[in-house]
Design goal:
Layout lengths: L18 E7 L4 E8 L1 H8 L5 H18 L7 E8 L5 E7 L3 E7 L2 H5 L6 H5 L1 E9 L7 E8 L3 H13 L3 E14 L2 E15 L30 H10 L4 H5 L5 H9 L5 E2 L3 E2 L1 E2 L5 H10 L2 H5 L2 E2 L2 E5 L6 E4 L1 H4 L5
Parallel strand pairs: 5-12
Antiparallel strand pairs: 1-2, 1-10, 1-11, 2-9, 3-4, 3-6, 4-5, 6-7, 8-9, 13-14, 14-15
Length: 330
Amino acid sequence: MSENAMPSREPGRIPADDTVVPFEVATLDVRGRTVRLGAAVDEILTRHDYPTSVSRLLGEAIVLTVLLGSALKFEGRFILQTKTDGPVGMLVVDWRSPGLVRAYAQFDRAAVETLAEPTDGDLLGHGHLAMTIDQGADMNRYQGLVALDGGTLEDAAHEYFLRSEQIPTKVRLAVAEEFSAEAGGAKRRWRAGGLMLQFLPKSLERQKVADLDPGDAPDGTVPHVVPEDDAWVEAQALAATVEDLELIDPELSSERLLYRLFHEQGVRVFRSGEVEAKCSCSRERVETILRSFPVEERATMVEDGRIQVTCEFCNTRYRFEPDSVLGDGE
């Protein structure tokens, strides 16, 4: 075996939930990640009384955030947030390195319930999606925005990479409920999965992309066109064969899926990362926030003799005796 040759092995057959598997298909100049979520996504979605369609949409946002956030090479946060005029006015997903995620949705229940089998576009409406990278208190934040115009979160991700990163990218997201027979009746659990491919050739010539339409080009201007690279065309065609069920199937490992897609080209997988649903709230943190408010404002929060605060992410309720937080905080 030469020094540059990579050792090969059979793909792992044992599925693992709540994991991110980075991979590379060197012959196609493609890198990517697969995400498989079980207990983590189920815990987040079942902490709230979301309608099924809202749970599915938030699940997609969680998968997309894990796909993107797990690429961070430093300790930090990746925050995905939508703000729109649709029935689901806001989605927030917060990823903290190396693998902690939390999320919630704000929605108009009555408006959601009037929709029969709504699409992402029906639920989101029009607005924007923001992706924020927070590297810590001593570093500047980076934020990218992309318009939401009645399309899917997959569409928004593709538009973001086209305009903000100019990296050819293909994203697939899948969310569904799993039903199983258990003592006491059927058990419902949420599952989710995703796949992301990015075309990253080393050649400058092959890195060329078409100039973006500035929006004010004179009539008759011929658009700039760069033919898609054959390798990227092939990678997208292979990704298009993936069915939603394969992304969430509890019996199919991520490695077996990648082998099915790229065994002819050769696929290299890297060390997987774990994903855990974990909120960052605590009684001590909530009390500190309460004490930061002016005394008069804190007094208006008292109801039925107590101050009650509910975390929007994990739905945990914190109750405080007024005397414990109505002082001057010194």
